[in-house]
Design goal:
By secondary structure, this protein is an alpha+beta fold. Helices cover 32% and strands 11% of the residues.
């Protein structure tokens, strides 16, 4: 993790078995795919869920 403040976000996401982390700050979450979590921007998340087209 590039930003130590994001460690808690990742820890909570892993422990709660989240599928996604939604953030405008994707660059600080590179490499977390190994935890089975996809990092998306809010727009990407809404597109993925079919809320936006």
């Amino acid at each position: 993790m590039r930003d130590p403040k994001d460690d808690l976000v990742l820890e909570v996401a892993v422990e709660s078995q989240c599928e996604y982390i939604v953030t405008f700050n994707k660059k600080d979450f590179k490499g977390i795919g190994k935890f089975g979590i996809e990092v998306l921007t809010p727009r990407e998340f809404l597109l993925k869920k079919g809320i936006l087209k």
